[in-house]
Amino acid sequence: MEHPTLAEMATAWAEGKTPGHPGVRQVRDVTVIDLGGGMSLVVTCDSLGGIGSKENDTLRVPFQVVGRFTARVALFELIATGAAPLVVVNALSVEVEPSGRQIIEGIRAELKDIGLAHVVPITGSTEENMATKETGLGIVAIGAIAADRLKIGKAQAGDEVYCIGLPKVGEEVELGDPEMLQAETLVQLARSDFVHDMVPVGSRGVAHEVNELAQSAGLTVQIESRCGVDLAQSAGPSTCAVVALASDAAERLGYAATEPVMWVGRLE
Fold it and tell me: What is the Cα gyration radius of the chain?
């Protein structure tokens, strides 16, 4: 089925017609939009509630940390596909001053850590009509990539699966923790030619993401239950990631990652 180009879609909308839609597919937690001309947009998101410095928050942490870790999840999921971030959108259910400003400072700090502080713009909105007593927000990251370079569903039979970093959540999570997946490692692996696919781990745990990685490539996985990592533990703000690579590339992975690296299983 042929899809309209973005130009055709925009023209139809401007002329009061019902526009068709470009090719859109959902793979794992990522939305991929076909732009035509061999290019794709990649959209990821994350949300947070009840964590912050407001009186009814369940876990009390500074707003800058809230912004950093929520942005981290959306950006890590985007970068793991190989896409280049274009814009970050925040929807903040808090007032702009001081809560919103501090959350945005955290988003900027995360972009700086990735090396994109002066490259990727931030846009969004805050809640100025109602007083809020609990923190809530959502963040969307949008990026672009040549469609043939997209690292989704590219794992191959015989690939080995490794976990980079350790799954942590809640009070276990601390900025600068060397056992957490680092932005520098993620970017390096996303740009590498030996990693076939990569998935940051979230609240559903390592085993879930490994199975998602395998299924997106039409494969199955044999997971080593004694791999040394808690396969069911939530990884909170993507404190680790699973990667698929050829069996002879394990040494290169070891050179790229300073975090703990554990073999999880093999794809078939």
Answer: 19
Tokens representing 214? 């395998």
User: Where exactly are the structural domains of the chain?
Assistant: 6-149, 160-267
Structure tokens of 226?
Answer: 């004694």
How far is CA 201 from each of CA 20, 43, 88, 144, rounded to the nearest angstrom? 34, 17, 20, 22
Q: Using CA atoms, how far apart are residues 140 and 64, in angstroms rounded to an integer?
A: 17
Q: Does the structural domain 160-267 have CATH classification 3.30.70.120?
A: no
Q: Is it true that the peptide bond before 4 is cis, omega within 30 degrees of 0?
A: no
Q: pLDDT tens digit string along 140-177?
A: 999 999 999 999 999 999 999 999 999 999 889 888 89
CATH 3.40.50.300 fits 6-149, yes or no: no
Q: Note the pLDDT tens digit of each residue in 100-141.
A: 999 999 999 999 999 998 899 999 999 999 999 999 999 999
pTM of this prediction? 0.91
Q: How far apart are CA 111 and CA 230, in angstroms?
A: 29
